Amino acid sequence: ALCVMSSAAFTYHDYCIIGAGPSGLQAAYFLQQAGRDYTVFERSHAPGSFFALYPRHRKLISINKRYTGKSNSEFNLRHDWNSLLSHDRRLLFKHYSHDFFPDADTMVHYLEDFAALLKLQVQYNTAIIHVTLEKDEQAWNGHYFLLTDQDGQNYKCSSLLVATGTWVPNVVNFPGSEYVEGYETVSVNPEDFAGQTVLILGRGNSAFETAENILGVTNFIHMVSRSRVRLSWATHYVGDLRAINNGLLDTYQLKSLDGLLEGDLEDLAIVKDKKGKLHITLRFYLEDRNTSAGIDSITLPQDELDNFATRAPYDRVIRCLGWKFDFSIYNRSLKIMPGKGYKKKYPQINPNYESRSTQGLFVLGTASHSVDFRKSAGGFIHGFRYTTRAVHRLLENRHHGVPWPSTVYPITQLTNSIIKRVNEASGLYQMFSVLADIILLRENATAFEYLEEYPVGVLAELEMQTGRKAPSGLFVIIMEYGRNFSGDDKDVFYYNRAVGEAQHAWQSNFLHPVIYYYKRLPTEREMKLRPPDWPLPRPDAIHHIVEDFLTDWTAPNAHILPLRRFLENCLSTDLRNFFAESCFLFTFTHQKLPPFCREGYARMQGLLGSEGLRRHAVEAGLLEDYTPTDLLGDRRPANHRESQDQLLRDHVITVRPLQHLVNAKDE
């Protein structure tokens, strides 16, 4: 649509998406499936421009596990970290690469196909350089978003989805930082480093990736950062150092010259000598001196401490400090502010991924990682593909009156529904402690409504955000690691690290399902006052399903039975399944039938029994053997009808006269 305001023409769309990376394309897919008016602005000529350059050495660290032994597509997404969500089975990443750690060029090709095959509305070669607000009471959020591109073209939208990622390199300024090469431009040819001594600033995957590339040709490599190394297998955070890049740890600990140091980079200074060698010193040594005055007139740490760790000069210093969000294009009226501390590289957003200061502005993808930074996978494709879907569902309810998708089941299916989801749901598994399944109980607990993968950070707002009601209590199903099992100083390989008994399930360390029960929806205040490191407030009851080595929570005694009894205790009802014979008996011996009998047998619903099923139940001890074999002899009925007729004909029941019973009593 084209509208004219203040003598400037604006192209209007309900939704504007900035960035055609993975999260931008994922959002576009959901909007297109819903038939919404949207467009995607991409500054490059093709989608996924970040992956055209990064990682510099072209190997992704997101796994592409093509085989799991299962055909369940939802389960398989638990181990496919690259595919975006769509209905098109051709757009699974396993069809694009056979490598466990794929090449980044393959990701670029995949994203191009995703946009083309699904016919997503992407406007390429359009760099949005300025975003501001226009107040209007008629707008969805009380204002419109006005966007301007590099050619001066103007766009107007009601809701803005920011999917630009974090692409501005982090730079630390200190005396001599002009001698530092950036990860984004440094050579990737190992031969350029042959016989050189290298210092790397940083300790993330980009730093170790760079070191891994030149490990075999350098004299030695030193790596300095303000924090100690964090191994992903210890922290259970995929953004920490992955095993594929940690060769430098071997050469460090096995005494092969390379090494790691801790220190604040802002305290450093670099001095270049006449031979072009780079010497590391400390900033306070240079406070009263000019770095251009010559190295002979500058005090170096080794002048006072002759075994100073970095006293050997370096040929090259490389900066590998990651990236941050680009705040520069947003007008002050949007009030987009950086986070605090370690989250300062991300914009401040609420747990529903909406800007804290500007309603209608949502941040998607890597830039939204402040919600679960260093906790879950929200900064990576295998995490934000689900959080992007959650944002879409929130927007559908808010602007179009489409409630959060849900399914209503009879209460008899409660245990089965939970077991099914915890065994196959990929969103719960990848976004552990962040996304949860919500079970809303109907009145008198006769039925329940099942909502999938809702952001737990806005649980108190569930009724407003989803359009669903929670009048009679709820269950929250979430995946968690053990409370004290993750950390950069944790030994995750100690003996007896796993729990096997159901009664000790609350001590489970590895990822496992946890069910919270609330008699009413938690309030906003309760959410804010929840215990540290708890994803949710204290519930009325809680149940841990014991961890499983195969992540297969289907064991009848270890997994299903304790869960069913927990649910029964919460609801004060019987959730067992019964054969028709048992239900028939209950109708004569109980005042209240179990739900399974009341909703099934009493309404003439259920499966027709067979001789094979009956024999199996008898052999399992679930039914008494009432088969009148002594009366049938060797002749077997041909079918169910003949069986009934023969029982009526042959199985004569002798009825004793009432008078006989009276006489027997008198005796």
TrEMBL record:
Keyword terms, alphabetized: Endoplasmic reticulum, FAD, Flavoprotein, Glycoprotein, Oxidoreductase, Signal
Classification via Pfam families: Pyr_redox_3
GO-annotated cellular components: endoplasmic reticulum lumen
SUPFAM superfamilies for the chain: FAD/NAD(P)-binding domain
Example of a GO biological process term: ERAD pathway
Cofactor needs: FAD
Presence of the UniProt keyword Hydrolase in the record: no
Molecular function GO labels: flavin adenine dinucleotide binding; monooxygenase activity
Signal peptide range: none
Assembly and oligomerization: Interacts with SEL1L. May interact with OS9 and DNAJC10. Interacts with TXNDC16.
Family: Belongs to the FOXRED2 family.
Its job: Probable flavoprotein which may function in endoplasmic reticulum associated degradation (ERAD). May bind non-native proteins in the endoplasmic reticulum and target them to the ubiquitination machinery for subsequent degradation.
Protein name: FAD-dependent oxidoreductase domain-containing protein 2
Organism: Eubucco bourcierii
